[in-house]
Amino acid sequence: MSPRKKDAPVRGYGLTAWSRAVLAVIDRPEDTRRVGKARTYFRERTILDVRVRPGTVTALVQGSQVEPFETSLTMRTVEPDTVVALLRERDATDDLLAVARGEQPRILGSLVLPTEPADVRGDCNCPDEEPRCIHVLALGYEMAAQIDKSPSIALTMMGAEIATLLAHLRDDTDEPTRPVRVRAPEVVDFYGSGFTPPPLPSPPSIDVFADLDVAGLNRALRMSGVGPLDLGEVTDELAELYARLIRTPQTPPSGT
């Protein structure tokens, strides 16, 4: 006769308020067959490779087949900034520090934890088409046990990690940046009042279109979209405009 297998230590779950709140939306006490089998899986520690991420829990649950089943819980997450704002309204921001100490404050729990079965969706690749199959229930019991030990896991499950909530709280309490007043630059009169600037210089009168090379002007006009047939007409108009400018007497600006 082979030696009797040593019994594994008895495991419990649902020992705290937050743990029971999660179980209330996952457990199916009326389905005694599935519940009994799921509890056996939990007690025998067949829930492997549990990974908790914001809004999702995944695990491998060793069932009746050789290969374990891929099982997950997906949560209807909460908005961390909204949670922090509601905590402020209720003067309960100390709840965040309480969770960091391993406590389960009531107000924070009421804002974050799931309240109805639709808040948690179970998925599994086993043949059972029930949304709460044996493996999903077993994972739910496993998470309840972990929440009993570390309440912050419940926050992560619901998409509101304790570090994220504390960051939002810190950002909200920072003193807003005060606008910087910029003084207008002081106007300095280097010349003193009554100074009259000298007249503008009078450049020599030349005909730029006749005395200078206008090849560069022609290239610029072509690049601006002027057609070859219109190039001469446009050049003539520019020459007439230039002639008007050089004939206009230049009046120096009045003094200040």
From TrEMBL:
It comes from Williamsia herbipolensis. It comes from the Bacteria. GO terms for molecular function: zinc ion binding. This is SWIM-type domain-containing protein. Keywords: Metal-binding, Zinc, Zinc-finger. Residues 109-144 form the SWIM-type domain.
